[in-house]
């Protein structure tokens, strides 16, 4: 299933999602590497097999092998990091914030792509996983690197649309249109 197939698979009640999917994927101001790395990382993090199967072949085609692996790495390490840091934040005991994390994340030291691209992908996955601490950290790193707010917002716009598309299509696949 390609991008057009994803759009056409969306039910009528989700026509806004089809339009938004076209908007974020067809007219994004991001570079091709930023766009497709964000899309791949978000497709993985969305946990939607439908979205991942649709976007992965084109992401593989449009990204260099190094960028393709880096986007997958961003998804993998951020899902882990987001759960960890979100849990720390949600606990009422602030002492957890003083403990050593003890999680290996070597890819952060050398992601194999431009640091800003990896940060953008990490921010998008953190948006999907609603980790405020990680969102702040990646947004600040991007802003320090000179990335403008519009570019930062574009990453979480893509995350929002792909999550909504995945959720809708997975629900339709499981339950279909149920009439009362």
TrEMBL record:
S-S bonds: 131-134
GO molecular function per UniProt: disulfide oxidoreductase activity; hydroperoxide reductase activity; peroxiredoxin activity
EC numbers, comma separated: 1.11.1.28
Catalytic activity, as annotated: N(6)-[(R)-dihydrolipoyl]-L-lysyl-[lipoyl-carrier protein] + a hydroperoxide = N(6)-[(R)-lipoyl]-L-lysyl-[lipoyl-carrier protein] + an alcohol + H2O
Top-tier EC class: oxidoreductase
Keyword terms: Antioxidant, Disulfide bond, Oxidoreductase, Peroxidase, Redox-active center
Carboxymuconolactone decarboxylase-like domain location: 94-171
Pfam families: CMD
InterPro entries the record matches: AhpD, AhpD-like, AhpD_core, CMD-like
Transmembrane segments: none
Active site positions, chain numbering: 131 (proton donor), 134 (cysteine sulfenic acid (-soh) intermediate)
Protein's GO biological process: cell redox homeostasis; response to oxidative stress
Biological role: Antioxidant protein with alkyl hydroperoxidase activity. Required for the reduction of the AhpC active site cysteine residues and for the regeneration of the AhpC enzyme activity.
Family (UniProt): Belongs to the AhpD family.
NCBIfam families cross-referenced by the UniProt entry: ahpD, ahpD_dom
Subunit details: Homotrimer.
Protein name per its UniProtKB record: Alkyl hydroperoxide reductase AhpD
Underlying gene: ahpD
């Amino acid at each position: 299933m390609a991008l057009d197939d994803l759009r056409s698979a969306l039910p009528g009640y989700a026509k806004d999602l089809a339009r938004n999917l076209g908007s974020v994927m067809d007219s994004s101001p991001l570079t091709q590497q930023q766009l497709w790395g964000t899309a791949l990382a978000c497709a993985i993090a969305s946990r939607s097999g439908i979205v991942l199967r649709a976007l992965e072949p084109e992401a593989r085609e449009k990204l260099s092998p190094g960028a393709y692996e880096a986007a997958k790495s961003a998804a993998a390490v951020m899902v882990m990091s987001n759960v960890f840091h979100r849990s720390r934040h949600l606990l009422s005991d602030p002492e957890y914030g003083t403990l050593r994390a003890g999680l290996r994340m070597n890819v952060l030291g050398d992601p194999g792509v431009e640091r800003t691209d990896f940060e953008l992908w990490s921010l998008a996955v953190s948006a999907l996983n609603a980790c405020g601490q990680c969102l702040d950290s990646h947004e600040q790193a991007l802003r320090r690197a000179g990335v403008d707010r519009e570019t930062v917002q574009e990453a979480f716009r893509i995350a929002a649309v792909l999550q909504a598309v995945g959720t809708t299509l997975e629900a339709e696949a499981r339950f279909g249109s149920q009439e009362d």
